[in-house]
Design goal:
The complex is a heterodimer of chains A (336) and B (297).
Chain A lengths: L19 E3 L2 E3 L3 E15 L3 H11 L6 H4 L2 E8 L10 E8 L2 H16 L6 E4 L10 E6 L1 H4 L8 E6 L4 E9 L2 E6 L1 E17 L2 H16 L4 E2 L11 E3 L8 E3 L22 E9 L2 H18 L5 E5 L10 E4 H4 L9
Chain B lengths: L6 E6 L7 E2 L5 H5 L3 H5 L2 E4 L2 E4 H4 E5 L8 H4 L14 E5 L5 E2 L6 E8 L12 E6 L15 E4 L19 E7 L13 E6 L15 E4 L15 E4 L12 E2 L5 H10 L17 E5 L7 E5 L2
Classes of the chains: A alpha+beta (336), B mainly beta (297).
């Protein structure tokens, strides 16, 4: 989901100097508003890293926004053989949905179509209930639904590979067996953290956003679900057209600076890009936002990175508020 | 009454002269009793009975010095809350003590010496260690926990009572020596490992679960095996059952998970490696046919 900054205080924000600037890049005195979601981590392993990545890319494809995709998903990181349950190379994928029911539905569909089908893969739950900092939610079916593909030839096996007895399914497929865990632990997570990067032109905005996403991807427990981690079509709630629940965020469209009464942009802004962050906990989202702010500000105003803002709904809809000034407090030039 | 999380020791004083049902000697139960109360516990034995105090000297914590260097280095067993689980040591046990650890659900029971029949019968949790041989029906219908026999065991290890439909359905049972006939008969879930040989009809009528035998097998192994896994360290002297067929390839992932799950168990199972795939046979085709024999040697 992308966010709509619908509550920027007044028109003076378009030109008033920000109270905080790092390396010449202004940090708006605003906050990102995020929402509770249900999430899980799946560990996909395969005979080679390439095939694990093929499956992960397929599973996390078309999963940019819960609005139209059912879930938001992304690759968290690659895993070395000594980090996976079966000792093969793997990829950790995070999936986020608005409810446990929808998350279970998406897991079943995506693993069934994208992992079960992919040569040599196996899939395991990646949330350890014993160490998870995110509050645990239901266990979502994994192999318990997919096993029926085995047409009666499937076998269940309880094994303790170090995390207590775990039930696995062995489903015969044409390259051997598809092995998957029976269920996957899910957690109560946080979705919709965001940053808006306001730049002089598209080159500067892309460079800043790419640097921010690269910094965020070095952190655990978060994904940036949009293509390349970046979204250009930030949205606001509502539309002038009946039936459209969301529409373009005209306040941040540079072609509407002189047209939209709600424009948040000064004339020097030529391009705005947004990064949406989903994380297992609010601390994870906050850490990722801090990393993103730091990376974008490192480029600074000299490269055309003018302002950093965030989207919110006035604080009335989402319980998680990420204040940019607080997040930037530890960065060079920043203060709380 | 508060629970004592230390060690209670029952040291054999006078054998009663008849077989005794020792199921009442559960570590969690005795931990909440005083020494005097423990001494008053009545142990039935057929038409006779005896009190614990008549048979055993009851010692608690510091009163009971360690009997061996191994005892002093026993790792602490923790309960679900991370607290040290109560330990009961039966010192000088003998074959007339039946049902040791029967239906125990927690704590640790260490038996120094041999034990009788039905050790760990329907136990569901905790740790039962027997430093000697055991009789028949060891781990019979066991549901959870860990049972280790450092000697040999009799027949029907991990099996079912006569007429019952399910044998062992959870936990880990290790026999370092030999096991008798009908090992894991009707077993449904869990892990059974035998460091020595197994008698006739090993893994017979296995519903599911994993059975490993390091030594030789008697005849008719895997008879009527529906599902589950029979692990063999080497090809058995008795020919494979005719109702088993070649199990093919492509089970590498399962094997790597299985090998990992055996890493902390006894040799040779702990020494198996994921890279070295076993030979696989599937059966028993006379029944469900989804069982497997994996020969690692």
């Amino acid at each position: 989901m992308s966010d709509a900054p619908a509550n920027q205080p007044d028109a003076s924000a378009t030109s008033a100097p920000a109270a905080l600037a790092i390396n010449g890049t202004a940090i708006d005195a605003t906050f990102a508003e995020a929402f509770p979601m249900k999430a899980t981590r799946l560990v996909i392993t395969a005979h080679t890293p390439t095939w694990a990545m093929h499956a992960a890319n397929s599973l996390a494809g078309f999963a940019t926004s819960v609005i139209g995709c059912g879930c938001e998903a992304g690759i968290e990181r690659t895993l070395a053989p000594d980090e996976t349950p079966d000792g093969r190379p793997g990829v950790a994928v995070l999936l986020f949905a608005v409810s446990s029911k929808e998350l279970a539905k998406q897991i079943g569909r995506r693993v069934g179509q994208c992992v079960l089908t992919c040569p040599s893969t196996a899939v395991f739950g990646g949330i350890d209930p014993a160490t998870s900092r995110a509050p645990l939610s239901d266990r979502a079916p994994l192999g318990s639904g997919l096993r029926y593909f085995g047409d009666g030839w499937q076998i269940a096996k309880m094994l303790d590979t170090g995390n207590g007895p775990t039930r696995y399914w062995r489903v015969p497929v044409m390259d051997g067996e598809f092995v998957c865990e029976d269920t996957a632990a899910t957690v109560k997570a946080v979705g919709g953290g965001n940053l808006l990067l306001l730049a002089r032109d598209q080159d500067a905005a892309l460079a800043a956003a790419e640097a921010a996403v690269a910094a965020m991807r070095r952190l655990p427990n978060v994904i940036m679900p949009f293509p390349g981690g970046i979204v250009r079509s930030g949205s606001k709630v509502g539309s002038r057209y009946a039936g459209a629940s969301a529409s373009t965020n005209d306040a941040f469209c540079p072609t509407l600076i002189g047209l939209s009464a709600h424009s948040e942009l000064g004339a020097e802004v030529g391009c705005v890009l947004e990064i949406v962050i989903d994380g297992l906990t609010d601390a994870d989202v906050g850490a990722a936002m801090t990393a993103g702010i730091g990376a974008a500000c490192e480029l600074g105003r000299a490269t055309g990175v003018l302002r950093i803002s965030a989207g919110n709904y006035g604080g009335k809809l989402g319980p998680y508020h990420f204040h940019l000034h607080a997040l930037a407090a530890g960065l060079d030039g920043g203060h709380a | 009454m508060s629970t004592n999380t230390g060690t209670t020791t029952l040291r054999l004083k006078t054998p009663p002269g008849f077989r005794v049902d020792a199921a009442a000697l559960r570590p969690t139960t005795l931990a909440s009793l005083s020494v005097a109360e423990i001494e008053r516990i009545v142990l039935p034995g057929g038409n006779e009975s005896c009190r614990v105090g008549e048979v055993f000297e009851v010692l608690r914590n510091a009163d009971a010095p360690a009997q061996s260097p191994a005892e002093t280095t026993l790792p602490a067993t923790l309960d679900g809350n991370g607290n040290a689980a109560p330990t009961l040591v039966i010192d000088g046990a003998a074959r007339w003590l039946d049902r040791l650890g029967a239906e125990m659900d927690g704590g640790r029971l260490v038996v120094r010496g041999p034990a009788g029949d039905y050790c760990g019968f329907r136990m569901s949790g905790g740790e039962l260690r027997i430093d000697g041989d055991t009789g028949h029906f060891t781990g019979c219908e066991m549901r959870g926990g860990r049972l280790t026999v450092n000697g040999d065991s009799g027949d029907f290890v991990a099996g079912a009572l006569t007429g019952d439909m399910e044998g062992m359905s959870g936990g880990t049972l290790t026999i370092r020596g030999n096991a008798g006939a009908r090992l894991a008969d009707r077993m449904r879930r869990g892990l059974v490992l035998v460091g020595g040989n197994a008698g006739a009809f090993a893994a017979s009528r296995l519903v599911a679960g994993t059975v490993g035998v390091a030594g030789e097998l008697g005849p008719h192994y895997a008879y009527g095996m529906r599902r589950g896994t029979l692990l063999l360290a080497h090809r058995p002297a008795h020919r494979l059952p005719p109702t088993f067929t070649n199990g093919g390839q492509g089970f590498d992932v399962f094997w790597s998970l299985l090998v990992r799950s055996l890493a902390n168990e006894i040799a040779p199972f702990s020494q198996w490696r994921a890279q070295r795939l076993p030979v696989r046979y599937t059966g028993d085709l006379a029944v469900d046919g989804r069982g497997e024999i994996l020969i690692a040697g």
